[in-house]
Design goal:
With 177 residues, the protein is an alpha/beta fold. It is built from 5 helices and 7 strands.
Length: 177
Amino acid sequence: GIPGAIVECGVWRGGAAIFMQGFLKAHGLAGRRVVLADSFEGLPPSAEGDDPDLTPAAYPELAVGLETVVENFKAYDLWDDNIVMLKGWFSETLPACDIEQIALLRADGDLYTSTTDILENLYDRVSPGGFVIIDDFGVLASCARAVREFFERRGETMPALEQIDWSGVFWRKEAAR
């Protein structure tokens, strides 16, 4: 019942997005847009001192091409016209994307700047009552720092985080006051 698209930033092989698309279809919600943002070339180098080196040179397995992700969706018969692919760095694709409302935002940017780009460009589009998932909050200090500093820059109290597992957290966005 929350208006908006399902958005995943940082797709890798597509597993989480495939699960989300499968859930939508299984529950008769197949008309909702599913937006997948990723470079589909791996992670960029980072200038942040506490970011790990996750570049394709260090971790080639993180560079999964767009065609592979599409084939993974098709393997489960879950590819359709409601899926939108945003190929490129978040700093380039997210500011200009045409997403007006977001029901669920899943951020798996790993790095400080990537996480910041996601929040700066998309958080205000998350519908009241919508959900935000930060995949690497519990394992990458720079990711957690990006979330904390995002709310500090806005002069807002950070929402109460719910732990998903050893790595991920989520919160439900409250209505504007």
